[in-house]
Amino acid sequence: MKISAAYLQAIENAYKKTFLPEMSEKCEVLQYSAKEAQDAEKVVEDIEYLKYDKGPWQDQDDRTFHGLRMLVQNKLEVLNYTTIPVYLPEITIGAHQSDRVFRKFLELPGRKYSPGYNADVGDSWIWLK
Q1: Which of 60, 91, 92, 93 could tie 97 with a disulfide, CB 3.0–4.6 Å?
Q2: Rounded CA gap, 1 and 41, in Å?
Q3: Same domain, yes or no: 95 and 115
């Protein structure tokens, strides 16, 4: 499959003119050329100097950090977020959106525990099971 230069140029322009400026308002953005990116020590040093004044770090609490930690400590679950068997832009959702939808699903009545153990939907005799 051959990709035209005009298509790649359009992606680059959109990235530089729309995406990066928008992300710069919401989070810290570090830009490197291909040669600069190879210097791992410089990249690590730049990350260490960040103050983290922007971005989602300010909105986090212990509960959300715990949820994130539980997610990343399970290697198979992290792998599930990175492997997409079929990529269709119209129906493919990102990892964070998928996680939000799954957490909302678990908050529905009767979904907190296994079937038969949810008092919120009228399950009884739970303590005998």
Answers
A1: 93
A2: 37
A3: yes
